[in-house]
Design a protein that fits this description.
Number of helices: 5
Radius of gyration: 20 Å
CATH superfamily of the largest domain: ABC-type transport auxiliary lipoprotein component
CATH architecture of the largest domain: 3-Layer(aba) Sandwich
Protein name: DUF2380 domain-containing protein
Number of domains: 2
Shape: globular
Helix content: 40-55%
Largest sheet: 6 strands, mixed
Keywords: Signal
Pfam families: DUF3280 (PF11684)
Oligomer: single chain
Length: about 180
């Protein structure tokens, strides 16, 4: 009898531990509400005909980045239609990537604790770098800054850069 009760007790304790870890991870994920701005392209965009292609890439890969962050990391991406309308309206009036903290105020207004500023610096038509910055919306403290070089201006190249960024952010914990 002794030998049967002990393994059952150990098994029950293990199940409870697993449940508590899962619950803690779920609660932790919801602590990282994040406003993710659209990707901004900087640097060389002098290639004729790139303007329309750039707009399409910004729309497509900004949404792809948000979806990947939501699905694969601890970030909860702000995506409420009303909140995103506020962001779009603010972006019409000023460059949210260079507004001296207005992006943090906007993040707080939509209920986000963090703001992510993604940008792609184009050294040339074929050499680019995806930059990711995560800032605490309240204090303005820069929590993470990382760059991912990629070659080519194809959808596949952009997807690969985002995939590497997501891989880095999957287990990252803000302080």
């Amino acid at each position: 009898m002794y030998s049967v009760k002990l393994p059952i007790a150990i098994f029950a304790a293990a199940l409870m531990s697993i449940a508590m870890v899962a619950q803690a991870e779920s609660a932790d994920k919801h602590a990282h509400s994040t406003l993710v701005l659209d990707i901004k392209i900087t640097g060389d965009s002098s290639v004729a005909g790139d303007a329309e292609d750039n707009l399409l890439k910004i729309a497509k890969f900004s949404e792809h980045l948000r979806q990947e962050l939501q699905d694969k990391t601890r970030f909860v991406v702000i995506d409420d239609a009303d909140d995103m309308a506020k962001v779009a309206a603010a972006a019409e009036n000023e460059d949210l990537h260079r507004c001296n903290g207005c992006e943090r105020a906007l993040a707080r207004e939509v209920g986000a604790g963090y703001v992510m500023l993604p940008s792609v610096f184009r050294m040339s038509h074929l050499i680019s770098t995806l930059h990711i910055e995560v800032t605490d919306a309240e204090s303005g403290t820069l929590l993470k800054r990382k760059a991912y070089d990629f070659r080519g201006n194809t959808d596949n190249a952009w997807e690969r850069a985002i995939r590497y960024a997501i891989r880095d952010l999957e287990q990252w914990q803000p302080r």
